[in-house]
Amino acid sequence: MKLIHIRKTIFLSLLLLIGLPFFFYGGPSYHSARSFQAAWNLGHILYFSLFTALLLTLIEKKVTTWPPLRVFISLFALVLGLGVGIEFLQSITGGRSPDMEDVVRNQIGCMLAFAFFPQPQRSQHKNFFSLLKTIAILCLLPALCPVTQALIDEQTARFQFPVLADFETPFEKSRWMNTRQLNNEKSLVRHGAGALRVQLSTAKYSGTTLFHFPENWQGFSLLHWSAYNPQPEALTLTLRINDTEHKQHSSAYDDRFNKKFILQPGWNDLVVNLKQVRHAPKGRTMDMQHIESLGLFVVQQDKSKEIILDHFYLTR
């Protein structure tokens, strides 16, 4: 039994040492797939489950006289302090902003390990551990929602292609950036039963960007999309498109496709010739097999405005 205990301790310690650098290095980029971003966040749950399991292994014989609630509160507080400390260090060493959702995930991991990891006191306190298991699972389910939703919508996007966005399915809004400025629209639509309402602020640049879609546009000739302008006056809206190589050119203005559209009041059905997109970057040809993002924005408005977007699709 002692040998098994030593092996378990060494194994858990090695896993934690391997995982520790990933708190500060690596991880998804701004443009990474949503499922990868969400799955990466779940690493906090896994790591602190292992960390709690290691602590339970180390203190197994030292707290046998403690009530399990006391042990749990002690470990829970320790994990909380460590998690907050890691977030603080990340902000210093990696330039990342502290994320309290990560701290919550750490605590879920602690709770899961304590609830399910074998402990000597388990048989004497079945009701307590049964309750803790239920609470831990109920806390875990919401944490799994982002990766589940991302996987569903990524599969939906592949199935819909060459439609890029038509706002007919539940999770399409998450394909776009600045979600706090976005609302699903059901009354003013150009196609189907849904559209996207975009709030435009008075910031220098305000709008939204479509990031998550099949990136291979090779062989397509036209991009179609519709925009509704509810203002009584015309509105200038800029469309930008870039490929994955754009970052290697410092995201320069002349290294992407940019085009201004004058939106008249009401619905505007718009078309972009993808040959122009292909030849837009200065000194090179855009990689149409690796299109990364499609952005729409206005410049320095004198007051807040809004537009409604619908039915982005490619044709040959």
Describe the structure.
The protein is α+β, with helices and mostly antiparallel strands and 316 residues long. Strands 1, 2, 3, 5, 8 and 10 form a six-stranded antiparallel β-sheet that branches. It has a four-stranded antiparallel β-sheet with strand order 4-9-6-7. Helix 2 runs antiparallel to helix 6 (126-160) and helix 4 runs antiparallel to helix 5. 40% of the residues lie in helices and 22% in strands.
Defining traits:
316 residues, alpha+beta, Jelly Rolls, 6-stranded antiparallel sheet, 4-stranded antiparallel sheet, 7 helices, 10 strands, elongated
Count all strands and give the number. 10
The N- and C-terminal alpha carbons lie at a distance of 68 Å
Rg, please? 25 Å
Beta-strand residue fraction: 15-25%
* Percent helix: 25-40%
Mean pLDDT: 89
What form results from the Cα inertia axes? elongated
Enumerate how many helices there are, as a single number: 7
How many domains would you count in the coordinates? 2
Tell me which oligomeric state these chains represent: single chain
Q: Which sequence of SSEs, written as H and E, runs from N to C?
A: HHHHHHEEEEEEEEHEE
Major β-sheet profile: 6 strands, antiparallel
Return the structural class.
alpha+beta
